[in-house]
């Protein structure tokens, strides 16, 4: 079991007990304002980015996911190495859409569960070039100039 934070855990042996009707597609999840469950294939896992949260070093990964309706990024907090593997299919519960740099992507929540799926997903990668162009830089640099005027 992997600990994400004191409230989040991942159990790769957990089996999602839900009907197929309760699993939304990526396309529908990106339009929903509610938390959702999805079944997705992992296409790529970006390197972790560290950040400080009240003196505690945390990390997040951008995970490129896909299903039959398209692709998007999933932001996963404090992902341990080797928990998710590319080209495997996972059932992920209680994810939410997130507005990130003026684009909707998906994000884990405090209640998210991730489990290896018994199904296989062949992702539709027709929109992958658009998704790959999303600006994933969370910290922006603001440059200001201070001009001094001489008083005469």
Automatic annotation (TrEMBL):
Matches recorded under SUPFAM superfamilies: Nucleic acid-binding proteins
InterPro entries found in the cross-reference section: NA-bd_OB-fold
This protein's name: Uncharacterized protein
Organism in which the protein naturally occurs: Adineta steineri
